[in-house]
Amino acid sequence: MTSHPRTALSVNVNKVALVRNTRHLGIPSVTRAAQLCLEAGAQGITVHPRPDERHIRAQDVYELATLLQQWPQAEFNIEGNPTHNLMEFIRQVLPNQATFVPDSVGQFTSDHGWRFPEDAERLAPLIAECRALGVRVSLFMDPIPEQMAAARAVGADRVELYTEPYAAAWGTPQQATQLARYRLAAMAAATVGLGVNAGHDLNRDNLADFLAGVPGVLEVSIGHALIADALELGYGDTVRAYQRCVDQGMAERDS
Ligand SMILES: CC(=O)[C@@H](O)[C@H](O)COP(=O)(O)O
Ligand SMILES: NCC(=O)COP(=O)(O)O
């Protein structure tokens, strides 16, 4: 039996900003949400400052960076398309991690990963710049084992497996088949020296099964479902509930 490092929970606070932006009152506070999630034990905060600022705005990024200076053990993960507005945030804020996501400007939400070799040429210099700044780079990827070597070759430190197809299959006869795709992709990533993150539509129902079935997941970034849960339970109890899901999944994986 081998044990793996505990999977880090990074809370994505996009949807707190989405609600905040519907009035000019500054509530609910994005930084307050992050503070309460960190106090409850979250290991990181994630934001996706989209170019249209539908939710996370530039000021949120800077205020969260200031907050996270008080939490040296926690990580700041900034997501975005590096050919749009992401790199300016990376240069100014120097987060722990940049997650490159191939979204178009007005895209409804993230729904696919990068593709190689098509995307390699334009990503390589941007990855090199982040790494030269001391910022870890994670590439948002579909769970395709054959793509992992190319992701490593372009300089990525990690991949983030796009988990919506797994989430959509959870609780159906297709769950095991989907989970096997992610297990093979994670193993392929590890084989070429990539760390493995995961995210999109993970929730309290499907998280433990994912971590039980996919080896070596270093970080899950969870936003939509977690913030929805927090509307019912509060940030603290919600983060603790998700931490229990992480612990359950890892216990099953290591059993
Ligand atoms: C990369 C990913 O899957 C999510 O972080 C996604 O970017 C969330 O964006 P929205 O909150 O705008 O749906
Ligand atoms: N990278 C995934 C993320 O940050 C949050 O995705 P979701 O939980 O809002 O679907």
What this model shows, in words?
This protein is of the alpha/beta class. The protein has eleven helices and eight strands. The protein has helices at residues 14-20, 30-39, 58-68, 86-93, 120-132, 148-153, 164-169, 175-191, 207-213, 224-233, 235-254; strands at 8-12, 44-47, 75-80, 97-100, 136-141, 158-162, 195-199, 217-222. Strands 1-2-3-4-5-6-7-8 form an eight-stranded parallel β-barrel, surrounded by seven helices. Helix 9 links the parallel strand 7 and strand 8 (217-222). The protein starts with 7 loop residues before the first strand and ends with a helix. Ligand LD2JLWAY binds next to strand 8 and helix 10.
The parts where pLDDT drops under 50 for at least 5 residues are none
Shape field: globular
User: What Rg do the Cα atoms give?
Assistant: 17 Å
Helix content: 40-55%
* Secondary-structure content class: alpha/beta
List the main descriptive attributes of the protein structure presented here.
single chain, 255 residues, alpha/beta, eight-stranded parallel barrel, 8 strands, globular, binds 1-deoxy-D-xylulose-5-phosphate, binds the ligand NCC(=O)COP(=O)(O)O
Brief overview:
45% of the residues lie in helices and 16% in strands. It is of the alpha/beta class.
